[in-house]
Amino acid sequence: MTTGRNDHPGAPLDLTALRGRVGIADVEAFYRRNSVPRSRRWWSIAAIVAVYLTGQAVLIGAIVPIAGLSPALERSVLYGFIAATGVYAAVLMLVIWRNAARPTRIERAARANGFSFDDRGATSQVFVGTLAAHSSAGFVTDVLVSDPDSATPPGPFAAATIAPRLDRPRRRGGILQIPLDRVTPHIVLENRHGGVLGTLGNRFRAAQRLSLEGDFDRTFTLYCPDGYETDALYIFAPDLMALMLDLAGDCDAELIDGALVVYSRKPWRLWRADGFTALLRLVGGLESKVRRQTGRYTDERRRPGEQVAAPGRRLRLRPSTGAVLSGLVPMLFAAFGIWGLVTGR
Q1: Would 59 be classed as within a structural domain?
Q2: pTM for the whole structure
Q3: Strand 317-319 and strand 187-191: pairing?
Q4: Exposure check for the chain: N or C terminus, fewer CB within 10 A?
Q5: Are 26 and 171 part of one and the same domain?
């Protein structure tokens, strides 16, 4: 087994735990360490599935005799359904156990490399940015956080899987946050090919769009506050734009509240060695360059005690077409109903 990175700076990642054996006692110990509610433990989910499938089998057993089939055909249908249900139940139980063992393995690998891990966390308590503000009561899963005092690369970061909810992206994705030394204006890179930010209810006002040239403008739409166009070009110099295209060309990103936040359309897949290392490569590739580009930034518009003037702290939003229609259509129905009651028509 290789040595953890905290013992020898620069040592390779120790990801052997991702392939290690996990038993019931190991999973239960993980639940206790992380105070996982009983309703989210594997045996609770397995029990719910077992009760559902048993009830379904009993229902079929009661319905089949009513169909008027011959006794031989009736037995064939019933036994065939029971066999299919048994196979389906076995597959479901394997999936439930796999999903229970994965966080335990990830936690082991995280601890071996000087990171902390939690299977679930409140979005707004871990992350800043548009998504965290949009779903302040929501949760993220597979939360991986580096030790801020560690001298080994990569530097401080937090990463997690975005869980789909009604007020969040419809698919699972990844979120990565890298703290910076300076607070910058709110600058957003929205992926033109579909990303996480585009699935939220509000959109950024088109007047804040800054057109750039080349492949960057074909991949990202850059938004910056009014009057901060020169600042955005200073930060996103050509070399940083090229790096974003190379490392995060399928992601959204934003500079906000002294951090770089990257949104991936796919989760980080920390249960796989290649997924774990890909995340750390992304952190290592972006961190030093973004820190260098923002390290000397100063907002000349700021007042004493401010790092960024109020107009630059947040982009202005507009409701999306879907958000407008989702509110307008019910209001039209309500207005039509009230009109009918008043006029008697």
Answers
A1: yes
A2: 0.81
A3: unpaired
A4: C
A5: no
